[in-house]
Design brief:
single chain; 440 residues; 19 helices; globular; two-stranded antiparallel ribbon; 2% strand; mainly alpha
């Protein structure tokens, strides 16, 4: 199939500027499929996680695929970048295990917080104040948040696998490693680890599929009731907002946490993947970044309306970039794959938690990389970053990890005479968090 047949000299060339980016339609489409393969695990993990709050699994599955398709399509058409988006790992964990199970709120409350966060993110994108917020938060804390979320996700994976459980006289302990569930999860972890070591594209997705198949003779994976079906309805999860507590302190904390993680995760992913593809300009800036961030923000609002947690840019986009993807045609191809996946929900529904748990554990590993860049010599920087990291799994709350990090940063900097390092925003946030603990 020639480039001309694929549209290199027609609409695709005009829309995506393929020649200008030294690529062709065939390369872009294949890169989009590669990106989908590396992040398709979210179609299994996200509904499984959010359904623990009482949300309808089928509805969340459809919301996950649709929001990913819409946001990724916007990224391709509006920003012309090969970046894919979907409900973010870490943010869905915060939604499920902190806001609903930890704080005792309904999933409708959490969904409302996601919606409001998305609206604010859109406004920040329009008025270009996201840079001010980004600069106000210390870099070491930003990196610590990523690492802490990684540990938190890994802990969830170990618990879902049955490898870690409540101990006998201890807070945590090993589960029964010779029972079927943990054995299947450990097999999956080895399979995914080998595939990653061999640089196999779609390692997590392939590992989940193989582990699911192995679970059939073990009696863990049920047989599917079908293979092809119309997408499950979103009516039980779409537009299910709860407006009664939107002015509460809990809503402020939850909404800010969603916004904080979304903004910094998105900006970090865009810069990281763009630098690998040599898309940054001579000043180290990303052209059309406003359009990219707007796509992310609109994706979050659309996702909340459909019934899923915060949509964000995926670092797995790097796999498509590594395969030659350079333009929005890669993203459009990924979006089409998500739309096709909507019609195969029965296959996704049989996947057991022991098959997705290894993916959670390894996603935790992927999020650990910023720890290498944290300044451990300056203790006014190292201690807040450390508290941010460890308090997320120890308190079983992403929000509490961020609170410990921010408050300790302001206190340590003030006492040691380094008040110039503290931004006005940090003072305000630390004061609000302290007042929350005193009065609430």
């Amino acid at each position: 199939m020639s480039d001309k047949t694929l549209g290199n000299d027609g609409f695709l060339e005009r829309k995506f500027k393929l020649r200008e980016n030294n690529t062709d339609a065939r390369t872009e489409i294949l890169a989009g499929i590669t990106t989908f393969m590396t992040m398709a695990y979210i179609l299994m993990v996200n509904p499984g996680m959010l359904s623990e709050t009482g949300m309808d699994w089928g509805g969340v599955f459809t919301a996950t695929a649709l929001s990913a398709a819409i946001a990724t399509l916007m990224m391709g058409l509006l920003a012309n970048y090969p970046f894919a988006l979907a409900p973010g790992m870490g943010l869905n964990a915060f939604f499920t295990y902190t806001v609903v199970m930890g704080m005792g709120h309904t999933w409708q409350f959490a969904l409302t917080a996601v919606f409001l966060e998305g609206i604010i993110f859109i406004l920040l994108s329009f008025f270009q104040v996201r840079e001010a917020i980004f600069n106000a938060i210390p870099m070491n804390l930003k990196k610590g948040v990523s690492v802490g979320i990684g540990l938190f996700i890994a802990l969830i994976g170990f618990v879902n696998a049955g490898i870690v459980q409540t101990g006998d006289g201890t807070i945590l302990g090993l589960g029964n490693l010779v029972s079927r569930g943990p054995i299947l999860a450990l097999i999956g972890l080895i399979i995914m680890g080998v595939l990653l070591a061999k640089n196999v594209k779609g390692a997590l997705l392939i590992g989940i599929i193989v582990t699911t198949i192995i679970g059939i003779p073990l009696g863990i994976t049920p047989m599917p009731e079908g293979f092809f079906t119309l997408p499950p309805s979103v009516r039980n999860v779409a537009f299910q907002f709860e407006w009664t507590n939107i002015f509460s302190m809990d809503m402020l904390v939850v909404m800010f946490t969603f916004l904080f993680v979304d903004v910094f995760d998105t900006v970090g992913t865009l810069v990281g993947v763009a630098s690998k593809a040599n898309m940054l300009d001579e000043k180290g800036q990303l052209p059309r970044v406003s359009q990219a961030l707007l796509s992310d923000a609109v994706g979050t609002v659309v996702g909340a309306c459909l019934g899923t947690s915060t949509v964000t840019t995926y670092v797995e986009s790097a796999s498509g970039v590594a395969d030659g993807g350079r333009t929005g045609l890669t993203a459009v191809s990924t979006a089409v794959m998500f739309l096709l996946a909507l019609f195969f929900s029965p296959l996704f529904a049989i996947i057991p938690s022991q098959a997705t748990a290894p993916a959670l554990i390894l996603v935790g590993l992927f999020m650990m990389s910023p720890i290498k860049e944290i300044d451990l010599e300056d203790f006014t920087e190292a201690i807040p970053a450390f508290l941010t990291i460890v308090m997320m799994p120890f308190a079983y709350s992403i929000a509490e990890g961020i609170v410990f990090g921010m408050v300790s940063y302001v206190v340590l900097k003030l006492i040691t005479g380094k008040h110039k390092d503290i931004s006005v925003v940090m003072y305000i946030l630390a004061a609000l968090f302290i007042l929350k603990y005193i009065f609430l």
